[in-house]
Design goal:
The chain is mainly β and 527 residues long. It has 6 helices and 37 strands. The chain starts with a strand and ends with a strand.
Length: 527
């Protein structure tokens, strides 16, 4: 099964334009200019030879920039195994119906690691090499804070998302930390970054932790509370799998803050502009943020979908799961897989626009067609029958229907157990042995540096890269396999103007089964 890869998105915002700075697969061919607030250091956008945009140019006294195009940082996420059919649906990973989002205004201390909001653990810190950070509280209080919370709640009202500023007593939840500070204070990155969060490819990131740096939105022209509200909604959208969009009226765009922005029921090319396209997270040509949210978290269980007008139609459709019943145990075949048949009844007083089955193991909404091998569906009148060749273990699903007026109704979640042999143990992570440079090796200014490591894995490798750490920052160099199997290299040079001193280097490797290894860090000296 292809492993899932999670990328981090960091965002620059400006009063009259917005520039995307993505730690994964973002390019731009032009950069607009606008006045930076006087108390902020000027942003330092820099074009590389392939006309891609880096977050901030490294100082002139450091290494040459990587030459292989924009940096693509991916962090694998371990997920349970599904059947081949389930794997073809998308990226597997069980997640409870709906999502609770905790807006944290109190700040706190956060630690590096796989996202776990209940323990203040954030994979963002892992990426930036920060073992821990202490985040100050939000500056908004009283009416201003309530305005922000109410604004975010309204933007997510059509979906099965509960937005609260009270920390949940238990269960899984997403946490979005609103802090009255700058990105440089927390992560050591440019102050032009207004928010950062993990993004899941066509699925939500369980227990994600993201950050919004409200200080930038209080500057003239940045939208104030409304701007911060849209930034919070935007970052939550990333944790729920949404990519950037070019449609200006969509909350996933970088258009200026506006009360008219929402998650639009309309297709849009992904990316911050036509000059800076991105691949959509679900691997399709365009993204419909409204429908993707319906697929990932489901509609508001009250039955009021995204208001659609529809000639005055305000009566929602009817939808129910006929079989199987919740709590059922289905016996698998000799391979341990189960052929699950789900029967749904759906009708409307006018016309149905769509009926879908949401298979929560993969967080995919399945249309009644045969577009996925191993999943079939037939319709006879108001009855829809899906047949899914699934794996083993517990599975949960629900159905929803949307009528021509945009009214939405969803069923309760049905949970069944698919009986069969236990899953195989997870594979081992890659083995990484640094070969070059050696410990305490010295490099002359203007000289070449060769990064070399022996990397092996019992599966296929998806990424091998060298990481150069200097003065609170880092540069990354994708490594390629040499003519010697299992030996990977990358090369660069030290600037002739480099400041003498110690640096450190490590090699990171990831495989296609979501296992990742960070090799032992080696200290070197620039002389």
């Amino acid at each position: 099964m292809a492993g899932t890869l999670r990328a981090f998105e960091a965002h620059m915002r400006a009063p009259s334009f917005a520039v995307s700075v993505s730690i994964a697969i973002i390019t731009a061919s032009t950069i607009g200019c606008s006045t930076t607030p006087a108390d902020l250091p000027a942003l330092r956008p820099s074009h590389r030879g392939d006309d891609s945009l880096r977050e901030e140019a490294p100082p002139a006294d450091e290494l040459a920039l990587p030459s292989a195009g924009p940096t693509d940082i991916v962090v694998p996420v371990a997920v349970p195994e599904g059947s081949d059919a389930e794997n073809r649906m998308g990226f597997a990973g069980a997640l409870a119906t709906g999502t609770t989002v905790f807006l944290n205004r109190a700040g706190g201390t956060y630690y590096a690691g796989a996202d776990d909001s209940s323990r203040h653990v954030s994979s963002v810190l892992s990426y930036y090499g920060r073992p821990s950070v202490t985040v100050p509280p939000a500056g908004y209080a009283g009416a201003a804070w309530q305005e922000l919370v109410s604004c975010v709640q309204a933007l997510y009202a059509p979906y099965d998302v509960v937005v609260t500023d009270q920390k949940p007593a238990g269960g899984a939840y997403t946490e979005l930390v609103v802090t009255n500070t700058w990105a440089s204070s927390v992560l050591g990155i440019t102050n032009g970054v207004g928010g950062i969060a993990p993004i899941g490819p066509c699925r939500a990131v369980p227990q994600a932790v993201g950050f919004v740096f409200e200080g930038i939105y209080d500057q003239p022209g940045y939208g104030g509370v409304r701007g911060a509200c849209e930034a919070v909604a935007h970052e939550i959208g990333h944790t729920l799998s949404l990519s950037h969009e070019q449609l200006a009226s969509d909350l996933m765009s970088y258009a200026p803050a506006s009360p008219q922005k929402r998650f639009q029921d309309a297709p849009s090319a992904c990316g911050v502009s036509a000059q800076a396209p991105e691949a959509c997270s679900c691997g399709v040509a365009t993204q419909n943020s409204h429908r993707q949210l319906l697929s990932v978290v489901g509609p508001n269980t009250g039955g009021s979908g995204n208001a659609g007008g529809g000639g005055g139609d305000s009566t929602p459709p009817k939808v129910s799961i006929v079989s199987p019943s919740t709590g059922s145990t289905l016996t698998g075949n000799v391979t341990g897989n189960a052929d699950v048949v789900v029967v749904v009844e759906a009708s409307d007083e006018t016309n149905l626009a769509e009926v879908k089955l949401v298979w929560q193991y993969t967080q995919r909404a399945l249309a009644c067609d045969d577009s996925i091998e191993g999943v079939t569906c037939t319709q006879q009148g108001s009855r829809f029958t899906w047949r899914i060749f699934a794996g083993t273990g517990q599975r949960s699903f629900y159905a929803y229907a949307v009528d021509a007026g945009g009214n939405t109704t969803s069923t309760q979640v049905t949970t069944v157990v698919l009986d069969g042999p236990s899953a195989e143990p997870p594979n081992a992570p890659p083995a990484v042995t640094m070969q070059l440079p050696g410990p305490n090796q010295a490099f002359a200014r203007g000289g070449e540096i060769v990064f070399q490591a022996a990397v092996s894995d019992d599966d296929d490798l998806s990424d091998v890269r060298a990481v150069w750490f200097y003065e609170g920052s880092r540069l990354e160099y994708p490594m390629v396999e040499t003519t010697t199997p299992g030996v990977y290299q990358a090369r660069t040079t030290v600037s002739a103007n480099a400041t003498p001193g110690w640096r450190s280097v490590e090699v990171q490797a990831a495989d296609t089964k979501a296992q990742r290894t960070i090799g032992t860090r080696v200290n070197v000296y620039v002389q």
